[in-house]
Hints:
The chain is an alpha/beta fold. The protein contains 10 helices and 10 strands.
Amino acid sequence: xTERYAHLVGSLPGASAYEAxxxxxxxxxxxxxxxxxxxxxxxxxxxISIVDSLRSHPxxxxxxxxxxxxxxxxxxxxxxxxxxxxxxxxDFGHIEAARTNWPVFxxxxxxxxxxxxxxxxxxxxxxxxxxxxxxxxxxxxxxRAFTEATLSEIRALRKNTGDSTVFQxxxxxxxxxxxxxxxRAMPLLANRLAKVIINLAAASPTGTHFxxxxxxxxxxxxxxxxxxDVTPLVALSNAVVRGWPHNKPLDYIHAPFAAADQPATxxxxxxxxxADLKVPTGTRFAAVFAHESQSLxxxxxxxxxxxDRTGRTVAVSAACGLGRxxxxxGRRVLERTAELLDD
Length: 343
């Protein structure tokens, strides 16, 4: 059994990047391969701030009102009549965030004596961001602009930080769609969804490090979808791995067993399909089961089931970013993660 590590998804408890990152480091110390900048402030709510910022884009207009109070109450934009949406005119804010927080991250590496720690930049999947912005029909017609803009940000960030950054591609839409698919349709759909993810990586600069964040949604601490068992997760992960470009290191796959306010189940049957999971040597498997509303004993049992079925030591993770919760709740999840790193 190799040493377990922790994986942090995105936003962290703290009012500033320094407070968020230092809080995580004080609790998890050297048990992290990568560290997000905390995604503090308006960035704590994943893509909400991005979509809201696009309301003022000259080529877009509001098609449907929404206050983000639930998944069926999200705003939706559309391309203005007579306009064309280009990736060069889209700014998702990741470059400015890194410009501000990269020096803070470097300070953290020095203070905690972790020179090998990677900077983790969260990148919403291009299909996911297009669908949350424009809806399904608008996304299909205009996804190219979101792909181009995402690739532009990856290239710019990598130019500034080099191999010190791992890009976490965040993918709730893909896993939720697959979880809703009929069983016989799942392999074909998994391959089609995986191709979108693979193409994004393939178009990135050679040597770019990636992680895949499979997700069931976490808006307002509520899941967007559920799984009867982990068959959809295994199907999508295996499809991504089969086609992954060899010159783009795949550092980890992040897999949800807990989702939002729902802890992971203790039912062994839920995890049985993990026996078919194919994770390459050198790619970590980050398992989502650290949760504040479940006993440590149950989560140790869940950890054992996951590790027995995958035949590997897993990284321990929560479902999504912790900055959307209170500071106290977020810290409790970090502390629980630390408890689950040891036997």
